[in-house]
Specification:
Blueprint (H helix, E strand, L loop, with lengths): L6 H15 L4 H20 L5 H9 L10
Length: 69
């Protein structure tokens, strides 16, 4: 995984520009991003971290919430 601290910003800007070029309105992009956040939140809550998400969590020094197991 790229450890450059600018990577999330660059990725977000690229994603936004791409969505706009596909004709999505800002409100549609917000709904898409909300869905993405919900998917990530659900994965973290259920302890279903993908290897990449788990690696990113470890690199940031954060821990996912307990899963209640």
């Amino acid at each position: 995984m790229n450890t450059d601290s600018r990577t999330p910003l660059i990725t977000a800007r690229s994603f936004f520009r791409q969505m706009r070029s596909y004709g999505y309105s800002p409100n549609q992009i917000i709904r898409i991003i909300n869905e993405l956040l919900e998917l990530v939140t659900t994965s973290v809550r259920e302890g279903k971290l993908t290897p990449v998400l788990a690696e990113a969590t470890q690199e940031e020094g954060t821990r996912p919430p307990p899963t209640g197991r």
